[in-house]
Hints:
The protein is 13% helix and 34% strand. By secondary structure, the chain is mainly beta.
Amino acid sequence: MAHFAEVVDGTVLRVVVVHNDVTTTDGVEVEQDGIDHLDAILPTSGAWVQTSYNSMFRHNYAAVGSSWDGTGFAALQPYGSWSLDENYVWQPPTPMPTDHPFYDWDEATTSWVEITG
Length: 117
């Protein structure tokens, strides 16, 4: 099965599954065949972009609300201070400490806070 994300203004609105019979030509998966099929059955939809359930390409599996920049899918930004790395993974301004097992991010102080209790 092939998965396709509907994208409008860089935001994923939904993800649908298209059967391999539609996307496979001569034993090769063809993204455009899936796009053409979806455009035919959903003519007023946004742009369709194939996504990989196993994140084999385009960095991440598309999810509703995630973003598409023409190269890869990125999850929603968890905190305003975090930045997207080259692998489309959100990174905090400072790495999480490893000296204790449980930390939570505090956006107000842009720091990690140890969870105790």
